[in-house]
Design brief:
The chain is an alpha/beta fold. Helix content is 36%, strand content 26%. The protein starts with a strand and ends in a 5-residue tail after the last strand. Bound molecules: zinc ion.
Amino acid sequence: MENKKYTVKCPGCGADVEVTRPVIINVQNDPEYKIKVLTGSLFNEKCPNCGQGLQIVSRIAYHDMDKHLLVYFRPITSQEELKTFDYEGIRSAIEDNFTTPNYAIRVVTTVNELMEKIKIAEFGLNDGVIEIAKFVYFDIFTKQFPDIGVMNIYYERRDDKDALIFFCNDGHTRSIFIAPDVYNAIKKRFDVVVNAIYTSRVCMVGRDWALRMIRAYSKRDSENQASVTDAKPEFKLVDSDN
Ligand SMILES: [Zn+2]
């Protein structure tokens, strides 16, 4: 495994903390690293000088040959990194070097997105469908809870079912199961675009992507729009069992 050394300053005591991280994780060769990414332990360190816990994120290419998944984690942790983030450069570099067909190749910028992509692939789901489903359930959520803001929504597997976890600005976390009917209706309606992201094209499939697709489709056929929101959803508070 190819490793790289990083040095960061401990915000607690100012000591230089040196960590060694893999640059490429191949899950078939190093299965334990899948667990380390999914639990977040890969990015959690302790300052050897003062003992403070530190989250230190580092670039990783995560490759799972069985799931046909390749995720490039390019962390953005500051305004400076956001300004210099060169998605087109990353995209062409990957596409020049990786030619295996039928892969989901993603670029993500946060640990949560990295974990989410791995979980979605684990359960055989299409991440484009999941991103669009977030909008469907967000609409339902805002009708039920018009005064509560939602900061983030992530896919999670709960009780052997597919769920979305809503991180809300009232300090609570709420979950809702993704109805198979809703999932399948989205998959059918958006079939062209959700299949296209599994053809080894490099994509950022997140909120912006889903919004672009929803807008493009609602322009194309406005009469079918209501069909995916016929679910009878139930939101549950999940704070207590976290
Ligand atoms: Zn320290």
